[in-house]
Amino acid sequence: MFYRWGQFAFRFRRIIPLVVVVIILAMHFLFGTKLDQRMSQEGWEDPGADSTTAAVIEQETFGRDNSGDVILVVDAGEGARVTDPEIFHAANNAIGELERTYDKQISHVQSYFASPNQQQITDDGRYAFAAIGLEGDGEQTLKDYRVLEEAAKSIELPGNATLEVAGATAVADALDDGMADDIARAELLGVVAVAIILLFVFGGVVAAAMPLIVGILSIIGGLAILSVIASFFQVNIFSQSVITLLGLGLAIDYGLFMVSRFREELDQRCGADSRSRRLSQSELADAVAVTTATAGKTVFFSALMVGVALSGLFMFPQAFLKSVSYGAIAAVVLAAVISVTVLPALFGMLGHNIDKWSVRRTSRTARKIEDTIWFKVPAWAMRNSRQVIVIVAGGLILLTLPIAGIKLGGINEAYLPPTNQVRQTQDEFNEQFPQFRTDPVKLVVTGATNEQLVDVVMQTREVDGLAAPMSPSTQTVDGTTILSAGLADRDNGKYVIDQLRAIDAPEGVNLYVSGTPAMEVESIEALTEKLPWMALYMVAATFILMTLLFGSVILPIKAVIMNVLGLGATIGFLTLMFVNGFGSEFFNFTPGPLMSPVLVLIIAILYGLSTDYEVFLVSRMVEARDKGATTDNAIKYGTAHTGGIITAAALIMIVVAAAFALSEIVMMKYISFGMIFSLALDATLIRLLLVPAVMHELHDDNWWAPAWVKNIYQKIGDGDSPTADTDFHQREQTQREQTQRERSSLSAEPKMEHAKLAATHARSGVSADDDADLIPFSELIKRIERNQ
Q1: Which of 10, 32, 200, 303 would bridge 336 by S-S if both were Cys, CB 3.0 to 4.6 A apart?
Q2: Residue 139 in contact with residue 409, Cβ under 8 Å?
Q3: Are residues 461 and 322 in the same domain?
């Protein structure tokens, strides 16, 4: 199937890239340019939770609670008071002017300076505030705030007095701006850094450009698809960052594997004449087709497995996770589609010109595969397999132990860096006016008489953990009353919520615990309830796909265990860093609970990426095994041929993730640092040491599968490729004879002439460590066997 697709791509090589580029650009201009207008800040809560029901009751009865949209905090300065006439009148005039100028955006203003309320001023008189309610609802609230934001932040007061902006909408806007900056930074720094790495890996401008083309097209197309989805479903703005991160990283990885395999196919057909001999059209078509049948098939299944892992997010009720899943799956699938359509067509057009504009030339001497680190390290691990398994697996388990101290929470101002002005002002407001926190816990009471309401209020006075006693925030309307109070400790929300849930409701009275803290608690409960099912789904689905790809049931089981070990170690690392605070000062964030929806997202992403690299590594081992290699030789052959590429791919993903590690938004740091740690762990300890050691111990059991699985494996494999199967040995024999003739000729030449010929035949842009790529498979196996 994939071989025939490669032939098709070669046949229509001049049409396919043009069609794909035109479609993606058309999608961008028709839909992608409207993405910003369709993004949402909402979707964090569980729509089926009691707290969401309570919020609906409150909004239908009283309208949206907009009292904490924008908070203007006036600080008179050290030793001064806001009641000083000059400060008082200046603040009153400025806030009044703001209200009059932006009357279409402002619903109401509750200002200490317009109508002094002792609850709105601190005991020492240094701080006072004005609360602004905005007219809009939902996304319109943010738009209204942005209209008046500049004017509010530019207010100046006499002396050392200052006016700063805080509030729920101001915090949301700061988070939004931070994500936009993240995307811009990643697209600039990430692409430039990746281009440099690719240039170093391939040594040529044209070859390095191939993965970049896939990455750029994937981002443009992925965001356009996300815009289409956003016109039908609620899509959180966070999805844009995830698409950029995954789309750019995985697309370039896929391109890297495709380009590497195509160059290898060229080498195998040209042998020592890789510079002087040009392939015929039929040979070039075969090289493109085999590349698609091998690397293309692996890319397809890899993207399928990453997509399956991400599709597990659909199990959760939060719109945030669903929307991120939409975007991430779109980016990954598009990256794979472009890799197996556009790249084979470009390969067909370029041929040997894929090495054009080389910036680095290295001699292609017949250096042995066993001289590379990708051979030596796995070989050492296999010789010391039991010790390696105990040490590496034990180390991963130790890294998992900090998970015992994990804490989960929701989104708030603490996800902004401590240096952010809105964050600082919000912290100051919460400290000076704890009873007016913009995220109070609420108790919605319906159907209560006055006596019953008093009974409920008295029971709330027994609740521990509140910053102040609960009291009605509004007058009773249609039998509905809202009681509210701030939390003394935001991280102690569940303790307070559980006490409120335990209140004995009088007969005929309904009680609903609401407010942001309650929504966070119920969201965490929904996530923890669904998480085991998501894990089971991911494991089962990827197991089935890997079984079909590898033709084995043992290898997928081994892969799942490796993935779980790596994932556990990564979450343990994130707990140490973000909950316990290791590195918080250096990386400019405040330690605290991990945001639960983002943690679920991290699990899906990292499991998918781990499976991705497992597929690329083991597929090459399976390929060697299918061609007659022993288990140990297949392991060595696979790691030697993919070790460098997997390391380069991991490095590229790490560089892209590192661009997001500079984010001001803590939840983006979760993902970026999680990916950096996981990928570094995966490409070193797991793939180079643990996988070879475990497979060596399993030996021939690695390849076991029922006969019916083997039959399916053969049907979806590259059996329709004559070159890939029956013709392989003929091509191998031809290459061996050609190599023997070359050696015979070279042995008769003077040493200087030998060097000149090697330099002439050198293919630019490939390091000496990759020399094994030009050695026929059978010769490689013989060398490996001689060195056992």
Answers
A1: 303
A2: no
A3: no
Whether residues 155 and 210 share a domain: the answer is no
Per-residue confidence (pLDDT) for residue 509, from 0 to 100 = 92
Binning pLDDT at 50, 70 and 90, where does residue 276 land? low
pLDDT in tens, 658-701: 887 877 788 888 888 999 999 999 988 999 999 999 999 999 99
Instruction: Give the range among 260-269, 329-338, 776-785 with minimum mean pLDDT.
Output: 776-785
Q: DSSP state, 487?
A: B
**Above 80 in pLDDT, residue 124?**
yes
Q: Say whether pLDDT at 766 is over 50.
A: no
Rounded average pLDDT over 650-656: 86
Q: Are residues 161 and 101 in the same domain?
A: yes
Asked, for residue 764, whether it belongs to a domain, the answer is yes
pLDDT at 761: 39
Output 754 or 72, whichever has higher pLDDT: 72
What value, to the nearest 5°, has the Cα angle with vertex 343 and ends 342 and 345?
Answer: 70
Helix (H, G, I), strand (E, B) or coil at 231: coil
Burial of 599 (0-12, 13-18, 19+ CB in 10 A): buried
What 3 state SS string does 329-382 have?
Answer: HHHHHHHHHHHHHHHHHHHHHHHHHHHCCECCCCCCCCCCHHHCHHHHHHHHHH
Rounded-to-integer distance, Cα 292 and Cα 386, Å: 37
**C-alpha to C-alpha distance for 372 and 773, rounded to whole angstroms:** 12
Contacts of 663 (CB under 8 A, 6+ apart): 178, 179, 181, 182, 185, 669, 672
- For residues 445-470, average pLDDT: 90
Residue range 36-53, pLDDT digits in tens: 788 877 777 788 888 888
Any idea what the CATH number is for the domain that residue 144 is in?
A: 3.30.70.1440
Picking from 151, 166, 181, the residue at the C-terminal end of a domain is 166
Is 711 among the domain residues?
no
654 in any annotated domain = no
Is 699 contained in some domain? no
- Of 195-204, 255-264, 617-626, the least confident: 195-204
**What is the structure's pLDDT at 786?**
56
Q: Which residue, chain included where needed, has tokens 């803290």? A: 517
Q: Are 463 and 496 in contact (CB under 8 A)?
A: yes
Say yes or no: 330 and 462 in one domain. Answer: no
How far apart are the C-alpha atoms of 728 and 609, rounded to whole Å? 32
| Count of domains forming the chain | 4
Confidence band (pLDDT; 50, 70, 90) for 728? very low
Q: Is residue 521 within 8 Å of residue 494, measured between CB atoms? A: yes
Domain co-membership, 278 together with 337:
yes
Report the SS3 class of residue 166: strand
Query: What angle is formed at CA 268 by the lines to CA 265 and CA 271, rounded to 5 degrees?
Result: 140
Among 566, 579, 588, 581, smallest CA distance to 661 is for 588
Q: Give 95-161 as a 3 state SS string.
A: HHHHHHHCCCCEEEEEECCCCCCHHHECCCCCEEEEEEEECCCCHHHHHHHHHHHHHHHCCCCCCCC
Both 221 and 155 in a single domain?
Answer: no
Asked if 353 and 222 sit in the same domain, the reply is: yes
Domain C-terminal end among 325, 340, 357: 357
| Residue ranges in 627-761 assigned as alpha helix (H) | 631-661, 666-681, 691-698, 707-716, 728-747, 751-761
List Cα–Cα distances, 416 to 236, 260, 338, 421, in angstroms: 18, 41, 36, 9
> Shortest CA distance to 726 belongs to which of 630, 627, 633, 602?
627
Full residue range of the structural domain in which residue 130 is found: 69-166
Query: Of 70, 39, 67, nearest to 148 (Cα)?
Result: 70
Handedness of CA 579, 581, 584, 590 (dihedral sign): positive
* Distances, alpha carbon 50 to alpha carbons 79, 431, 518, 521, in Å: 47, 29, 9, 11
How many whole angstroms separate alpha carbon 88 and alpha carbon 779?
88
pLDDT at position 364 is 38
DSSP assignment, residue 416? S
pLDDT in tens, 282-295: 889 999 999 999 88
